[in-house]
Amino acid sequence: NVWMRKATRGESLRTKPGGGRPRRLNDLQLAELEELLKKGPTAHGWDNNLWTTRRVRKVIKRHFNMEFSRCGVWHILKDYLHWSAIRPAQQAAKRDEAEIARWKAEEFPRIERQARERNAYLAFVDESGFMMTPTIRRTFAPRGSNPVNRVFDPHGRVSVSGAITVSPKRTCVGLQYYMLADNVNFRGPSVIDFMKHLRSRLCGPITIIWDQIIIHSADVVLEYLQTVPDIVTETFPPYAPELNPVDRAWFYIKYGRLPNYAPPTIVKLRRTVEAEIKRLQGRPDLLRSFICQADVPFVF
After folding, report:
1. Fewest CB within 10 A of the end CB: N or C in the chain?
2. Are 176 and 150 in contact (CB under 8 A)?
3. Distance (Å, rounded) from C-alpha 212 to C-alpha 192?
């Protein structure tokens, strides 16, 4: 055996002999495999962007003429390439990266500069809907037991418009919100109601930055804006929700505070959502973090 051979050769028996099967893919082949996988499954003929051990196994067979078990492929991905299972993010195909970069470099500095010249509040605005159907997140449970969220009204919803505001001197951060009646979506008139509410809470000129959606440019909204010269509206580039800090506030409530939340009534949903928003109003540190995490070149 190994120990007898070592003793015969006069080697020390204190050192443990190296064991295990030698690695079949060398460092150069692993680097080549990683580059192949980074191209994505669609580059290798599959219709969707999903890497599985079966698919990686086929890529290895095709390019290196080696057969691996699915367990072996998992070992290669996890231990050699240091890959992990990651949930993909979704982006609109119409997204224009060059325009987004230009907006951050040119448009937002202009918006912020002009707001300072007017001694105006900055108000990042976004609308969202909170559903009776809960936002799903993984949770711990006994093995083999699938937790169930019982939905009482799959169509029930509460629509909210929110604004993270920054004071004219860029020192104070706040959160204003406006909730509609149950099961009602925002339209032009309700957007005007929110701007009136925002105007009543902020004493001074306001620069609103919001998305380029139809309700923000409805005729009634444009007509109202002509009557209030102290409100100036600017828009984010299309398909760039990561630029809006309010989007991060909604994400925080839905995925951080209320995942798997299935209220028995829409009244309960409204009360809970409003309580969470009011909780955020008392957390300027979180509001600042949403602005800092948003991909806008803003400095307090």
Report:
1. N
2. no
3. 16
